[in-house]
Prior knowledge:
By secondary structure, the protein is of the alpha+beta class. It is built from 15 helices and 23 strands. The strands form five sheets. Strands 1, 2, 11, 12, 13, 14, 15, 16, 17, 18, 19, 20 and 21 form a 13-stranded mixed β-sheet that branches. The chain has a four-stranded antiparallel β-sheet with strand order 6-7-9-8, covered by helices on one side. The protein has a two-stranded antiparallel sheet with strand order 3-10.
Amino acid sequence: xADHLNLRRRAFFALPAAAxxxxxxRAALAQAPSQNxxxxxxxxxxxxxxxYHTLSPNNAVAxxxxxxxxxxxxxxKLQPGLAESWKxxxxxxxxxxxxxxxxxxxxxxxxxxxxxxxxxxVPNVVNxxxxxxxxxxxxxxxxILDPHTIRLKTAELYPLLPYDLNNIYIICKSVGDNVSxxxxxxxKAMIGTGPFRLQSYTPDDRIVMTRNDSYWGDKPDWAxxxxxxxxxxxxxxxxxxxxxxxxxxxxxxxxxxxxxxxxGISFSExxxxxxxxLKVDVEHDVSPYxxxxxxxxxxxxxxxxxxxxxxxxxxxxxxxxxxxVMQGVGTPAGQMMPPGALGYNPNIAxxxxxxxxxxxxxADAGYPNGFRITLIGPNNRYVNDAQIIQAIGQMWxxxxxxxxxxxxxxxxxxxRQAQNNMSAMLIGWATSGEPSTALKGVLTTRIPxxxxxxxxxxxxxxAKVDELTMEGLRTADDEKRDQLFQDAMKAAMEDLGLVPLHxxxxxWALRGALKYEARADELTLAHSVKRA
Length: 532
């Protein structure tokens, strides 16, 4: 992998009104130690378009330039954002009072017109590999009462609308109806109400941003931020130790002990809301990367047999992965919600590693000698992702499933997922603190016009899961809704709509007199980095 410390690439664009940072790392910090911040994250965004891809790196970048009606604090609790308050007027009408005095970075006032414009655009983003439409579909009509009061209509009682709107960044109406993803990537449409303005963007390398001095909220400590993308773990840690960057995310477990004993390095950490799991193809009659032991394509897809999916699941030693590959930085999982979170079902056990039982299940399903499969996954997105799929491949070998492991950059994997060009794939999902997004996005039948199954590219479909999820979405009573979602998750896990592996832990490392409030949603936000 390329050494990002030595990577020099012409910026994809540079806004002519701003001068580029003359240097990064120690030299720049020496010039203006109280004004500039340089940090490094492990995963680059796939676009600057805030509505293009439901992906945490994209959301983290967008949060520097755009705001949402409803925000979340570090513990994933809802907080006022561009909406100061909201209330349910009747069963199908939510009223939002918008913050006054907010301006976009082009000087225009933020009003209800911008909210309507944004909600209209979200489901119409071209070629989105992970649509945000599941967060906007519930809104069937809008009514502007005045520039700072808007009512959003739903087809039926929908108590989770504020949670949904926590996922949608508001853009300026003046960008025009025909604004494209490319217009964001080249800077033309990067007009937001957030704490920073975009100065330059070099894909897969860095973003340079400057403080938005007209920001309505607390001003960032930093006049200029260089937000670097360093996917290689060793290079990212080396950049921190050398002083080239002052903060990194996704601290590699193998480097954590050394960093904890390094003078001047501090940590910020919190259990994550992200579940790492496997998607398995149940859509194709003949799965594209499965063959018999002679390498010949199989005439039917074995993954459609629940016994095969169960065998693959209990053929994985989750505790072993957490202990050895993750070096303890994680928790084995049997569902998509962590203990203590809304929607967590205590009656769903973490699958026990049992290779002998796995072999028997395969034999009962008609595959006593197993078969061949390719397991794909990213090599630059999640903590030790490439090592995890290597470990799983070895475990599947032991139950008779001859496994080829193919690790690739996440940008490539995302396109493979969108095309459903896989048989088994490692991926992750970070919930918003409650389970509806995971159920609706990943485990319900893919129904685009309803916003269901927007990232369910494996073809999983279970009528009971759909029914319980839909009932929960229209249940106002919090306890009843939580139980319905628990039941939906149990039904999905019994049918193995996906194979959960573990919950991550979010860890940041900082150099010098800095502090960062660890976030359960794993977002790395420059404006939340403070002087200690």
